[in-house]
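We were asked to recover a plausible sequence for a given structure. The inputs and outputs are reproduced exactly as logged, with field labels preserved.

PROBLEM: sequence recovery
POSITIONS: 157
GIVEN STRUCTURE:
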């Protein structure tokens, strides 16, 4: 059985941490001559934290504004970091919970491999915030490669 990846998904939050995973995703796409998909998820979680009722104040910009900003950042990111990848990278922006959107996109596009960065938060931050990467690893319909950021110091739980 030969290992063959035809579609590789690289989810990004545009952080410096994700750039380490980008290098691996591009390298894998080139090695396997695979189609690279780049996905950014606008996390809609902040919408659930707003106060209900007439005195409720949104905690952030409107979702439409955040989505449009995500699209602009995706276009800039692909142009700056992925423009030389062949075939051309498919850039996508979705709205929702990041882990669920990553898994949903992987299923829809029949992705063979997901390459994503891990932030390496400490035990307390992990317990409070959870880990998008961990949830993707547990629920993904395909192989997942996690990449630690270069030079990042990870705390043992």
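RECOVERED SEQUENCE:
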């Amino acid at each position: 059985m030969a290992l063959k990846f035809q579609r590789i998904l690289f989810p990004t939050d545009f952080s410096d941490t994700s750039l380490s995973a980008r290098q691996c995703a591009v390298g894998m796409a080139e090695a396997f001559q695979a189609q690279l998909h780049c996905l950014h998820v606008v996390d809609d979680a902040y919408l659930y934290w707003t106060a209900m009722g007439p005195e409720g104040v949104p905690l952030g910009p409107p979702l439409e504004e955040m989505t449009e900003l995500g699209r602009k950042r995706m276009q800039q990111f692909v142009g700056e970091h992925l423009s030389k990848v062949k075939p051309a990278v498919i850039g996508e922006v979705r709205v929702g919970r990041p882990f669920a959107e990553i898994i949903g996109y992987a299923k829809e596009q029949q992705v063979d491999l997901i390459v994503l960065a891990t932030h390496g938060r400490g035990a307390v931050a992990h317990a409070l915030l959870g880990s998008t990467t961990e949830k993707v690893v547990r629920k993904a319909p395909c192989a997942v490669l996690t990449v630690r950021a270069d030079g990042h110091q990870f705390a043992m739980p």
